[in-house]
């Protein structure tokens, strides 16, 4: 069996992961105005060159913690996900902290936005520039839906931009093949069987 996850080539493995749809490994992004995005009292702003796709939103009333934006991800496979948040890459002098709340028992954190962009925990290109996303945390999804809500955590203003999630795929036996791929191809995810050749075609797993 010719596996798309050869241990000898991390780059080849990543190319298969991202390009061939074998596992749900690609990031899913919801930006301002996208399907799944909704707002409660925040003001949209365009022409922001260091924000994802050039737009962002902010609470229109200083200090108002009741104004928010929500990002609803539907049709998700059950499993564990990383959640990331972005805002303009240089931060903003009048911004305080953005509160990010993740549904399904996920974390709630405050991300400081004053004069500082997000940490580069995830970097995605929006078609024009590379955008840093800061990791919020991890969550287990079992009902196909995940909702991330942003609001003012502290200070006068918060700025919300794109939210990204990424499905986590385990590799219990550390053989370079994701567990769900081994399950789907009749392999044993508890032992390192990367060198096996169960179909006798002369190619290893």
Top keywords for this entry?
5-stranded antiparallel sheet, disordered N terminus, mainly beta, 205 residues
What is the fold's blueprint, element by element?
Layout: H1 10-19, E1 28-30, E2 37-40, E3 42-46, E4 55-59, E5 68-73, E6 79-85, E7 97-102, E8 108-112, E9 122-125, E10 130-141, E11 146-154, E12 159-160, E13 163-167, H2 179-184
Antiparallel strand pairs: 1-13, 2-5, 3-4, 4-12, 5-11, 6-10, 6-13, 7-8, 7-11, 9-10
The helix fraction, in percent, is under 10%
Number of helices: 2
Q: Strand content of the residues, in percent?
A: 35-45%
Rounded to the nearest angstrom, the distance between the terminal CA atoms is: 5 Å
Q: Order of SSEs, N→C?
A: HEEEEEEEEEEEEEH
Annotation, overall tally of beta strands: 13
Radius of gyration: 20 Å
How are the strands of the biggest sheet laid out side by side? 1-13-6-10-9
Give me the secondary-structure category: mainly beta
Question: What would your notes on this structure say?
Answer:
The chain has 205 residues and is mainly β. It has 2 helices and 13 strands. The protein has helices at residues 10-19, 179-184; strands at 28-30, 37-40, 42-46, 55-59, 68-73, 79-85, 97-102, 108-112, 122-125, 130-141, 146-154, 159-160, 163-167. The strands form 3 sheets. It has a 5-stranded antiparallel beta sheet with strand order 1-13-6-10-9, with no helix packed on it. Strands 2-5-11-7-8 form a 5-stranded antiparallel beta sheet, with no helix packed on it. Strands 3-4-12 form a 3-stranded antiparallel beta sheet, with no helix packed on it. Strand 7 and strand 8 (108-112) form a beta hairpin. The longest helix is centred in the N-terminal third of the chain and has 10 residues, at 10-19. It starts with 9 loop residues before the first helix and ends in a 21-residue tail after the last helix. The model is unreliable at 1-25 (pLDDT under 50).
């Amino acid at each position: 069996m010719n596996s798309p996850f050869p241990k000898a080539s991390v780059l080849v493995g990543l190319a298969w992961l991202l390009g061939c749809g074998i596992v749900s490994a690609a990031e899913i992004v919801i930006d301002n105005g996208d399907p799944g995005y909704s707002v409660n009292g925040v003001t949209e702003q365009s022409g922001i060159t260091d924000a994802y796709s050039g737009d962002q939103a902010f609470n229109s009333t200083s200090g108002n913690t009741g104004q928010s934006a929500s990002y609803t991800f539907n049709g998700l496979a059950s499993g564990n996900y990383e959640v990331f948040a972005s805002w303009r890459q240089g931060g903003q002098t009048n911004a305080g902290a953005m509160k990010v709340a993740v549904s399904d028992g996920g974390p709630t954190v405050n991300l400081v936005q004053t004069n500082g962009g997000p940490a580069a925990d995830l970097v995605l290109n929006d078609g024009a520039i590379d955008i840093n996303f800061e990791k919020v945390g991890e969550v287990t999804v079992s009902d196909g839906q995940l909702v991330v809500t942003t609001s003012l955590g502290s200070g006068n203003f918060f700025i919300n931009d794109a939210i990204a999630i990424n499905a986590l795929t385990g590799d219990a036996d550390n053989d370079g093949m994701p567990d769900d791929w081994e399950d789907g191809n009749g392999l044993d995810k508890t032992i390192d069987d990367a060198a096996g050749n169960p179909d006798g075609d002369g190619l290893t797993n």
